[in-house]
Specification:
The chain has 11 helices and 3 strands. By secondary structure, it is mainly α. Among the domains are: 122 residues, Orthogonal Bundle (Cytochrome Bc1 Complex, Chain D, domain 2), CATH 1.10.760; 76 residues, Cytochrome Bc1 Complex, Chain D, domain 2 (Orthogonal Bundle). It has a 3-stranded antiparallel beta sheet, with no helix packed on it. Helix 7 crosses helix 8 and helix 7 packs across helix 10. The longest helix is centred in the N-terminal third of the chain and has 25 residues.
Length: 293
Amino acid sequence: MADKHEQTVDPHTGTATTGHEWDGIAELNTPLPRWWLWTFYACIIWSFGYWVAYPTWPLVSGYTKGLLGYSERTNVTEALQAVRDSQAKLNEAIVKDSFADIKANPQLLNFALAGGKVAFGDNCAACHGRGAQGSPGFANLNDDNWIWGGTFDQILQTVRYGIRSDHPETRISQMPAFGVDGLLTPSQISDTAEFVRSLSKLPHDNAAAERGKAVFQGDGACATCHGDDGKGNQEVGAPNLTANIWLYGETREAIANQITTGHGGVMPAWSGRLDPATIKKLAIYVHSLGGGQ
């Protein structure tokens, strides 16, 4: 609480006091500048006009509309629709034209790449990274090593239907869990991991790798899908093991874990989630990243 004292002149500033004092500290009489007060009053008056002219006050089941009927939501909706209308012909061409025709049309190609980049950032970057560099379990889309093929049509099919997704036309591959299901012993798995490392010229134990080669090429084992030379088979989604590009890691432990568990990630099918033009733009963008065949 302030104590009431006589109005005096502060000896330090030469300014009159208001007569109020708090714990021995006197309040100086320094009112707001007149221009500031008039501006403040004008803003109050202006606010009443704003309340009347524009949507302002929330009600039980809506809000006051204002005399001008202004709606920023309507403006944004109309602006977005105008953009869609302006892009409609380009999107129709994207869906209708072949990949070769799109590449031969600089305007259409640039439109597809720009739209694909945006769609990738919104939908794919969470797993593959903003730069499509991938991460353990998620493919790097910049290199030239493709599990299911890197042509435009192959990429388009992967984007449309996904990998091991719930779409009836999804791409399906299933590596056996050789350890979990008891198909190989721990020592066989360790030897096979050494042989797999040898395929990519990684440091390995020669004797163990030779034993692993016999397991790898045995009946019902790895060569059935990856081939005796380990170069893979895109028809069944078997990776090339000689390329030294690894989805789950190249260490002995990582390779042994892959053989033991089989892994098998899921990529969603974007058909039904994205419109056909966006899906095609995504495929064009991914193909352009540097590894498209």
